[in-house]
Write a structure and sequence with these properties.
By secondary structure, the chain is of the alpha/beta class. It is built from eleven helices and eight strands. The longest helix has 22 residues, at 280-301.
Length: 302
Amino acid sequence: MMVATKEIPLKEYVLKGNAACAGCQDMVALRHAHKALEGDVIQVVPACCTSVVQSLWPKVGMNIPILNTAFMASGATASGVKAALRAKGKDDTTVMVWAGDGGTFDIGLQALSGAFERRTDMLYVCYNNQVYSNTGTQRSGATPLYAQTTTTWFGKREPEKLLDLIVAMHEPAYQATANAAYPRDLFDKFKRAKEIKGPKFIHIFIPCPQAWNYPVEKGVEIGKLAVETGYWIMWERIGDKFELGRHSKRFQDPSKRKPIEDFLKLQGRFSRLFKPEKDEEKIKEIEDYIQHRWDILLKTLT
């Protein structure tokens, strides 16, 4: 059963005055993740937006221990931190990687794979804003089909990498997707992950107003539309037991989904799909790839 809003702790671990952009959905996700973990955590952060958000020395924007590491090294760093904690008899402390899509889909994938192959008892979180947002909004392996970035001016020609299936093949003890627009669901998933031993992975959908070019107040609306159009699938897997999330169950049927244009039109990065006129062929290609993701996910993980 999903936690009631009044049951979410009031204590804050992400502090006021941090360096996040206005409308940053990463901070919504991070706040609720730490409320679920209740402060007993060491956070490993590779190069990403969060490494800047935590604020500049000598001030700090988070009330938890943070270890910054190189872009490609977060999985290996977390393994080392967990080994050190175990040697000190603090095996119950959660070691959590909080990495962007660039540091997970691309540059950090080998360290993530190595840590999971070693069965490190850690929680790896990919907060996915689908672009290298912190370094100028270049395309990443998570950037979707036809999205504009500074390195794909006319729209990316390749669909995003199916990272969740790559991670699933490592047989983590726990794996889930989440969305900053559904904070109670996110809170519940982090609570469950905290109680499970072994390698764990949570993949969070994080709209970014700067990189996606939308008004800062539209982040939650875009996050919900991602689910309601079927673009983002909410699910959870404990061991080999797969469950489609309640927010996504009804959208397994394509006829129940909202038109994908509702999601795309709010984001300037897809503006070329609608100007000077709607590109029906490309929009249909995006729809087809969304259904492909549904088909392959349910076929592989259930």
